[in-house]
Design a protein that fits this description.
Elements (H helix, E strand, L loop, with lengths): L1 H28 L11 E7 L10 E4 L2 E11 L6 E7 L11 E7 L4 E7 L12 E2 L1 E3 L4 H18 L10
Parallel strand pairs: 1-7, 2-6, 5-8
Antiparallel strand pairs: 1-4, 2-3, 3-4, 5-6
Length: 166
């Protein structure tokens, strides 16, 4: 009787640990697990295409998280995506000619912004605009271009049989 009870307790603890692990994973994937967001300074970057980028997506430089996406809106004049980025206050020496690109990370396809530093002596400040941006690569378009070019190549190499007159 005592061993059956200890087995049931162990199974219960195992199930509880599994549920806790799933909860932590869900928080990590949804970017809600990091509640220690620091309020730094905000800059804006305009992109032609942001793919699946969402508010609270990470902003990295050399693989180090330096901020988060605060908001995303559509510019009514240029029809570009206007992305507002909060950069943490300890990273106050990012050159003003820094470029921003939208990349995909991991198997789940999480989108993030990667900053590549420039060489200017002036630094980004609150309200500045990052002019050099590279849009997200849309996988469907790349596959479509590949299939179209493959089909065009195979069509041009297609030869019709000719009749031999004997």
């Amino acid at each position: 009787m005592n061993s059956k009870r200890s087995t049931e307790i162990m199974v219960g603890l195992f199930v509880a640990a599994g549920m806790a692990a799933l909860f932590v994973l869900a928080m990590k994937v949804s970017n809600l697990g990091d509640i220690t967001d620091e309020k730094g300074y905000e800059v804006v970057a305009n992109f032609q295409n942001i793919g699946g980028l969402k508010p609270r997506s990470p902003v990295t430089m050399a693989g180090v998280r330096v901020g988060r996406v605060t908001s995303i809106s559509l510019d009514p004049d240029t029809y570009d995506a206007k992305v507002t980025i909060n950069i943490y206050p300890q990273y106050d020496n990012i050159p003003i000619d820094t470029s921003a690109s939208v990349f995909t990370a991991g198997l789940l396809g999480e989108q993030y912004i990667s900053l590549s530093p420039g060489a200017d002596d002036f630094f980004l400040e609150d309200g500045d605009v990052i002019d050099l941006t590279q849009p997200a690569v849309v996988l469907e378009q790349v596959i479509g271009q590949f299939l179209y070019s493959t089909a065009a190549v195979s069509y041009t190499h297609l030869t019709l049989p000719t009749k031999r007159i004997v």
